[in-house]
Write a structure and sequence with these properties.
By secondary structure, the chain is α/β, with parallel strands linked by helices. It has two domains: 143 residues, Rossmann fold (3-Layer(aba) Sandwich), CATH 3.40.50; 195 residues, Rossmann fold (3-Layer(aba) Sandwich). Strands 9-10-8-11-7-12-13 form a seven-stranded mixed sheet, with helices on both faces. Helix 8 crosses helix 10 and helix 11 packs across helix 12. It is globular and about 65 Å long.
Length: 349
């Protein structure tokens, strides 16, 4: 299990304590984080790290410049893999500017002007949370995209993530047949439809016994997602025997939300499925979402079934072209199929 450490270092002790408390409350259910608030180089260097743990990932936040903060950061990097470091460019202080910049890994700190990594001081807590969570999620996604070598026994003892990407006029009945066949085999099947609700042909009318996907997306947006093992409260049993995630309250919630929220949603579901045994499957059924978003979601899945039109018109040619560009960016861990029969054989259905 990877562990993360957050250091908040600045001359403003009160700010350090308040920000650390806010982060601890946000991550209160996580046992994978340590948070330190320090106000001097000595405290930063003497923070209670356990560098003997090979799986540790150090995530550092350096606030207003303290003497030797660069040396402290360098010291931490020498003992830990620095996932992300927020730091202040002292040259900008001399010029009366107050910008913070972001650097990643063990690269030499340098000025980065990307709007996604530029922090204006004082930064809001929500902005800091977004940056921290994005880097933790990126690390998790990277681990998913580049998995460690596992034995055949280990690989066969975990659940499977499958994605169905519809780029044609079909209604996805082939996926329904696959899920029904798996249920007849005694498999546990989850179904997540990422599309407008008016295209959710494989979902039944949601019941009122639990929260829906709109509630889950809102929790992700507010930085208070549920634990992965509790994700089942957002599902209900479909008459065909699979567990569907309850459709959102508004028909376009899933296609109008931030793509990053969809990726975080899939990370939660993936964590849940991978903790189950080999008889658990989750099908992610995508339609009418951007190709870029589809690619980011497919990278978190074990198998991708492409449903492409065989026509010769412009729409079919465009779908094939865009699909080809997306497939070129997928990691080797995602197996690609354009035939339902091929995937059925792979899954032994």
């Amino acid at each position: 299990m990877k562990l993360y450490t957050i250091i908040i270092a600045s001359n403003d002790h009160n700010y350090n304590v308040i920000l650390a408390d806010r982060l601890r409350r946000y991550y209160q259910h996580s046992t994978r984080l340590e948070i330190f608030a320090v106000s001097s180089e000595l405290e930063a260097m003497n923070s209670n790290f356990d560098s003997s743990q090979p799986q540790r990932r150090a995530l550092l936040f350096l606030g207003t410049a303290i003497d030797g903060c660069t040396r402290s950061c360098g010291n931490c990097r020498s003992n830990h893999h620095c996932l992300a470091c927020f730091y202040l460019n002292r040259a900008d202080i001399d010029m009366g500017s107050s910008f913070y910049y972001f650097c990643s890994g063990n690269q030499k700190p340098d000025r980065i002007t990307d709007d996604n990594t530029l922090i204006k001081w004082p930064a809001t807590v929500s902005h800091i949370l977004n940056l921290l969570q994005a880097n933790i999620d990126s690390e998790q996604a990277s681990s998913a995209e580049k998995p460690e070598m596992l034995s055949e026994q280990q690989m066969s003892n975990e659940g499977t993530m499958c994605m169905h990407l519809l780029l044609s006029d079909n209604v996805g009945r082939s996926l329904q047949d696959l899920m029904r066949a798996q249920i007849r085999q005694g498999k546990k099947v989850y179904y997540l439809a990422i599309m407008p609700s008016w295209n959710m042909h494989l979902c039944c009318t949601p019941d009122s016994t639990g929260p829906d996907l709109s509630s889950l997306l809102l929790a992700i947006h507010q930085h208070c997602p549920p634990e992965a093992e509790k994700i089942g409260i957002f599902t209900q049993l479909h008459p065909d025997g699979y567990f569907q995630f309850r459709p959102p309250a508004r028909g376009d919630d899933l296609i109008s939300c931030e793509p990053e929220h969809l990726r975080k949603l899939l990370l939660l579901i993936r964590q849940k499925v991978k903790c189950d045994d080999q008889d658990t499957y989750c099908w992610v059924d995508c339609r009418d979402i951007s190709i870029q978003t589809a690619g980011r979601l497919a990278a978190l899945c074990d198998h991708l079934l492409l449903d492409l039109s065989t026509g010769e018109d412009f729409a079919a040619a465009s779908a094939r072209r865009e699909a080809g560009l997306m497939l070129a960016s997928l990691p080797n861990s995602c197996n690609i199929y354009e035939s339902r029969q091929q995937l059925a054989e792979r899954l032994k259905i």
